[in-house]
Amino acid sequence: MRAISAGLGESFAMAAANALLGVALREATQRKLQRFSELRGKPVAAGEFWDIVAITAADEKQELAYKQQLSEKLKKKELPLGVQYHVFVDPAGAKIGNGGSTLCALRCLEKLYGDKWNSFTILLIHSGGYSQRLPNASALGKIFTALPFGNPIYQMLELKLAMYIDFPSHMKPGILVTCADDIELYSVGECEFIRFDKPGFTALAHPSSLTVGTTHGVFVLEPFNYLAYKDLEYRCCHRFLHKPSIEQMHHFNAVCRAGNFSHQDMAGGDTTPLKLESEYVYTDSLFYMDHKTAKKLLAFYEKIGTLNCEIDAYGDFLQALGPGATVEYTRNTSNVTKEEAELTDIRQRIFHLLKGTSLNVVVLNKSKFYHIGTTEEYLFHFTSESSLKSELGLQSIAFSIFSTTPKCSGNTSCIIQSILDSGCSVATGSVVEYSRLGPNVSVGENCVVSGCSVITEAVLPADSFVCSLSLKMNGYLKYSTMAFGVQDNLKRNVKTLSDIKLLQFFGVCFLSCLNIWNLKVTEELFSGNKTCLSLWNARIFPACSSLSDSVTTSLKMLNAVRNKSPFSLNKYKLLSIEEMLIYKDVEDMITYREQIFLEITLN
């Protein structure tokens, strides 16, 4: 009985601690959002905000799309004014990773500002991927992913700027590096601020479970003589581990015990809450480098000229730091997507360049780190009772017209800047954004519907992903709608046509789907690299002359697979997702969203 009551006592204590943490994060977050909303559309005073906000792009098409959206936001006064907003594109050729993009951004800053940038506070947001795991962000970019709150709707860019609102005024000149698809929430004492004022690198650290540590960077902190637990602690890092195994975390003394603190109320964001007596580690999110360190990296980049391999800003920069850093990691390619001959050499040169540079860590004991880079994470955080939902104040119906009353608790659907007829039904667990749905449209559970217009009767089966893009082809405006299952892996690829039976579309063998659609297996079926065949570059999506026709046709091909009934795609001009991104017409997509925005505003 004692064991049971002790267990119950611990559960209650844990629930109470998490509830308190949730309240603290919610209050801190709302204060930051309020402060940002006061700066939107107004000129900022010197030192009040970033001098420069830069976003990285993978290629010139993406660069143009980002510039168009930034200019639209500035025109509509959705961002603070008097700030330099830039988009820096990776050089054409080999992929260079976010580390390479960082080096490239430093060169762009030097070209634009000469010696002036040595006095600037700069926010650098990495948003250069094609978002294959969350394809509704592929066309317009992860940093422009819509969030279900705000009027006008917040996108990831505004959220990042709001969450970092206190940083610039407590920062020496330098660069803060962050990614487009994560969210850091934190609470510190009322008179406390996170300071980025030390030489070298400074990184934020969040308490997380050991399991989360295996997919993140983990800090091995120097011993610390503390008398009491604090929300905010400045620590020195002995060494940094990149995606270590649990054994390595123990071996290098990265593991802490939550029992050290009498009121440790940690939770790891994307993870289940940590138990009071459990082990935990401190994981990474964003980092800052002072101007002197940035100049050192720039000189290195100028010296090597062209980069032909992928460098990771976290794994390859941070692992070189701290007194305990050793050169072994430079030869470890287990976390590398593509192994290039020069990768080890470049890593070793970075190691010797940065060795001896300090890694300062800002430990945020009341913080959570969330990732929204996959369809699964996106649906979970927007439609379930995720703690992020309450901490950020996410809504079930955000800036939309839809007369259905959302449920008060449990899983709901999520509607973002859309117009839905009262006769339309959207099942729980589904997200609809920037769309118009008519009276006889039924959306099943766990669906993503983005940029669509469905006037006629239509059924979207459960677990379907449907996203429409405007295209400019030979000077004509066309539309194409990608449609597949939310569980489908668009990155999974095979090398030969005989192996495409190993690919799956909506949980069905891809070869069977091609038979249903009356399509022949030839090299012409795939765009781009013919030795890397995947759902991403399969030419299976019809190009149509109207948006609603495009959605209807793609839904027919989806339902044909589901019902195993033939639907011939032979008469259509077919595109792959890869090609849709080449032909995308950003201006038309922005116009479509703007029409929905105006209609909602008038109502």
UniProtKB/TrEMBL annotation:
Task: Report the residue ranges that make up the GDP-fucose pyrophosphorylase domain in this protein.
Answer: 114-545
Q: Name one GO molecular function term.
A: nucleotide binding
Which Gene Ontology BP terms does the record give? GDP-L-fucose biosynthetic process
Is Nucleotide-binding there in the keyword field?
Answer: yes
Is-annotated flag, keyword Metal-binding? no
Could you tell me which InterPro entries the record lists for this protein? Fucose-1-phosphate_GuaTrfase, GDP_fucose_pyrophosphorylase, Trimer_LpxA-like_sf
UniProt keywords (A-Z) are: Nucleotide-binding, Transferase
Q: Which PANTHER family match?
A: FUCOSE-1-PHOSPHATE GUANYLYLTRANSFERASE
Q: This chain belongs to which protein, by name? A: Fucose-1-phosphate guanylyltransferase
